[in-house]
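Structure request: Presequence translocated-associated motor subunit PAM17, Entomortierella chlamydospora.
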Amino acid sequence: MTTAATRMSIMTGRAAFRAPCIARSVCNTPAKSTPRRFLTTSTPCKAGAEGETMDWNTYFALRRSRRNYEYAFMAPCALIGLAGTGYYFAQKDFDPTPIFGMDQVVVYIAGTIAGGIVGLAAGPMVGNMIFRAVNSKSKPLVDRMDKEFFKHIVKNRADPSTNSLSAPIPDFYGEKIKSVSEYRSWLRKQREYRRKTQFFVGTE
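Returned structure:
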């Protein structure tokens, strides 16, 4: 009996001694976690990566940059339109025959001005294309955030039926919003507009 008890105590002692080692090995095993990457202006994420997100501050910074690109290309495109149409009309032979009852010089000048206006209108589109080419990695995220931002605008802006020429809804499409603080200010203006319209409707 004594020998059996001694063997049992030795076996249980070994088991008790090994148990912490097993537990320690399990605890030291690194847990697998899905990395979550955030897009920033300094280290943009690769497009299409899983778990990829963009914070609102980064989105508004890219939104301001896109608007700057659009403004920057308005004047060059207008000049190109003016120069192109002016050169085209300058190469034509002068004919005293009126066009649509007007002198040809007047028509040529009007056509040149129209070419400049078309170039001015095309400037924002060209700027947007250049912006998307320069920021090709963040383009899918910007498109996704544009849709999400527009959902917030539609959800939180005042009722469009209350819009009028005398009292228009402030920044109906949220085009003037350039930061999170300006978005909060926009929300306050929408609430104030709702209160005013409800007050005037109630007093009628």
